[in-house]
Amino acid sequence: MSVLLKRDGLIVSCQARADNPLHGPSFMGAMALAARDGGAVGIRANGAQDVQACKAAGLPVIGISKVFTDGVPVYITPSREAAEELAKAGADIVALDCTPRERRGDAPETLVRYIRNDLGLEVFADISTFDEGLAAEQMGATYISTTLSGYTSYTEPKPEGPDLALIEALASRLSTPIVAEGRFNTPQLARSALVAGAHAVVVGTMITNPREITRAFAQSLAARP
Ligand SMILES: CC(=O)N[C@H](C=O)[C@@H](O)[C@H](O)[C@H](O)COP(=O)(O)O
């Protein structure tokens, strides 16, 4: 089956929250251009404005819509309305939380069907465990991504490194392309995701968040005995 995200490709997540000095579509659009020039094959972006800005790079864009609600754990594209806005902004692929956790919005199977059949877009399922990946395949997701490993109550505490064991388990037993995402903080780790069977790798913080990259350097210097 042919899919938009190229095999062995790097996808760069261009996201900056409201408290980040780089927040906003002009900065995220520029990040997408830089990622394209560096060799990325896709972009992940949050919210309609950033999705629209990132489209200028001419790469497939995975759109997400983070909707935070007090006391509700699910925040990545929780409803049909959120998915529809991303489609209108030009997203080629819509990512959503595919965990069975409590949500305000639509059930993941409803959303997967809606994105594929009504919006006519590819579906990127963010999951945290093997069973969630299996369920996402049965729902008809186009890609299954390890985005939420370490970020659900039952996979916490978040380990230092990425979840290569989950990628290997999913890739060896499912037929849906598996995307590696979450804490791929070096080129070597990204490559090890492909060796574990990933179709492609998403990198965010270590490419597009200078504040966190600076923090890592500053903390390392401050730790000198
Ligand atoms: C858990 C969650 O909400 N992850 C988010 C999903 O869109 C982003 O904040 C991450 O930056 C992205 O997954 C890439 O991961 P990393 O920044 O570790 O390369």
UniProtKB/TrEMBL annotation:
It comes from the Bacteria. It catalyses: an N-acyl-D-glucosamine 6-phosphate = an N-acyl-D-mannosamine 6-phosphate. Its EC number is 5.1.3.9. It is an enzyme of class 5 (isomerase). Gene3D superfamilies: Aldolase class I (3.20.20.70). Pathway: Amino-sugar metabolism; N-acetylneuraminate degradation; D-fructose 6-phosphate from N-acetylneuraminate: step 3/5. InterPro entries: Aldolase_TIM, NanE, RibuloseP-bd_barrel. It holds the Pfam family NanE. Keywords: Carbohydrate metabolism, Isomerase. Converts N-acetylmannosamine-6-phosphate (ManNAc-6-P) to N-acetylglucosamine-6-phosphate (GlcNAc-6-P). Belongs to the NanE family. This is Putative N-acetylmannosamine-6-phosphate 2-epimerase.
